[in-house]
Specification:
Radius of gyration: 27 Å
Number of domains: 2
Number of helices: 2
Order of helices and strands: HEEEEEEEEEEEEEEEEEEEEH
Largest sheet: 5 strands, antiparallel
Amino acid sequence: MYRALKTAATGMYAQQLNVDAIANNIANVNTTSFKETNVEFQDLMYQTIRATGTPDQQGGTPPAELQVGDGTIPSATTKDFGQGALTPTQNQLDFGIQGDGFFMVRMPDGSEAYTRDGSFQVSANGNLVTSDGYIVEPGLTIPQNTTAIQVGTDGTVQATVAGQTNPVTLGQLQLAKFVNPGGLSATGNNLYAETPASGTPILGNAASTGFGQIEQGYLESSNVSIVNEMVKMIEAERAYELNSKTIQTADTMIQLADNLKQ
């Protein structure tokens, strides 16, 4: 019965973390390119009361061992990188990715970060940057007096400059993808960092084999489903309630056992 108290407590803690993840998903339902987070669980160690093949008191040999588990533990949080819907914005500096791939961003310390959020801007120096001012690789510079920017599905960037008839090609946005995108570390601000679990980035041109294409004037919406999150929240609440009832039941049984001594 004392084991039941501890086991149920692990279940309550696990569901608290599960609800925390669900709450974060719901809070980011309107966040550009946000990816749903799921919590994974593992069972804890088992106590073997009788091993397989051990004769019982009647001389028989039960075909299965007798074990009691010690509860559960959260093992990982994983991102669902399923495609979010592309929403039109009519902004020429908004780029959505249809398919696999991440935009590459140069951080202030020189490291690389990765994002699906293509809501870009032009800095005072003419650099194409994120909304936080981080330079979008490969470091394109928009000329002064640019009247329009065109981005092809393959990432080719062209600018129409006042006084010039033909558009000027500025470069090409490359995409990065990973063998295990679920291993990326979310660092906030819609950015991800490479980890040993994600593997090294694989670079390629948009619209090429294995890479998504870039859609100008669109942004990728969050892939969170409110209906699914509400169902998950109800399931977590019921699991938490059952674990709390287990503690109440074990406590009642302990009280009954104590009363036998009186």
